[in-house]
Amino acid sequence: MISNLIQNEWLQWRRNSQVRWLTLFLILISLIALVHQLSYQSHLLDTRLKAQEDSRKEWLSQELKHPHMAAHFGNYAYKKPTSLQCLDPGLTIYTGTSVYMEPHRQNDFLFSKSQESDTGLRFGWLSPALICQLILPLFIILFTFNSVNGEFEKGTLQLLLAQGVSFRKVLFSKMLATFILFASFLIPYFLLTAILSYILFDGDLNLGSLLYLLVIYSIYCIIWCLLGVLVSAHIKKIGTSIAFLLLIWMFTNIIMPRMSANLAENIYPLITNYELKKGIKESIDNGLDGHDPKSDRALKIEKDLLVKYKVDSVQQLPFNFEGFIMQQSEDYSSKAYDLHFKKIFSTLENQKKVQTWMGIASPFIVIRNLSMSTCNAGLESEIDFQTQSENYRRSFVQNMNNDMKDNSAYNTFDTYRVKKGKYNAISDLHIENKSLIWLLQSVIIENIWLLVWSISLFILMFRSRINLIYS
Q1: Best CA proximity match to 454, nearest among 147, 225, 168
Q2: Which of 109, 118, 269, 357 is deepest in the core (most CB within 10 A)?
Q3: Per-residue pLDDT tens over the stretch 371-382
Q4: Radius of gyration of the chain (CA)
């Protein structure tokens, strides 16, 4: 009986010219979003590879100079995009794609797409993820707002019930028919995106992540199918039901994400970039506790070394004191950066937690976080990229400072030069993307909310009774 009801639903849609036009429009805007995102990712990939290659060539081809000056020539760290970012670019649009690494400081990310774009980016970056998260629910609403109350107005619902079909089966059939229809769009769309991304990224595709994305987006689709059918079943007037569904869409997909972001910023405000840099400078100059000036630290290190090696001056040390003290200064500044950036990362993570918990009122927030994380474009991935690049920066700067300490004499800053081949000994940076299991550890609550939404709506559907609604 359920299969007959589903087939009847599809037959009615096939006879409706408006449904055909809506379907064509959905396919059209989805293909536009896919082409747009593939074009952007292709350009980004080519630009990153060329920039990384050019940066390496410039590092290797620089003239032989003092190791610390060579370190100041710097290196660049470039994010390693994944093929799934063709589906959902996540935060990579806003956080930049590279970072310049040099001694003494951690630099900001460069070349953020949001810095290059106008205010239109505030409304969302056109991508397959945006289509599936924001636009697809609208189409589901258009297919379900009159699915039950429309049958009641035509009198066909009463005929079905008179033939012994339970009201629950009617609702389930309506929901399942809508879900199968949109799943027949969603699955090929994801597979097409995956195939084209696979070609673009030369076979770099995580099948486990792709399968997980298909599952969560399917559940998201089911949630909206259930919402549409339930509202149609509980509101007799068709005009009222579509208005109510649109209000739900606006609240969950537009208002709640904005409210959650504003609330998170108010509860856990971020300091300005000026305040951050000022705090780091004060920690370096005056000590992490504010009572350990830079000059006093240098004198203490010098005295300790003289006592340890039983010499009268730093010139008598078995290594170049200038290189040693330079690395000590580098280590201390790194501690200062760690102290302040830890606070920044903690604030960002707390902001995300606020938005995550508010996902109980918005499946859009839930699917957005899950999608970004799975595509290696969430907050944790951005922090991990900064951590990896910073670890590399410290390693290569230490390597150059140690060359100065071990191979040069005191007070030869203007005359000492690194040996040939030293630049080549500094390996290039290769960012490693995390596994799906690592990524999903940060979105456990979102997975729970997704199940809570779907299970709750299923319970409401199976507890719905015709005599309570259309009495």
Answers
A1: 225
A2: 109
A3: 999 999 899 998
A4: 30
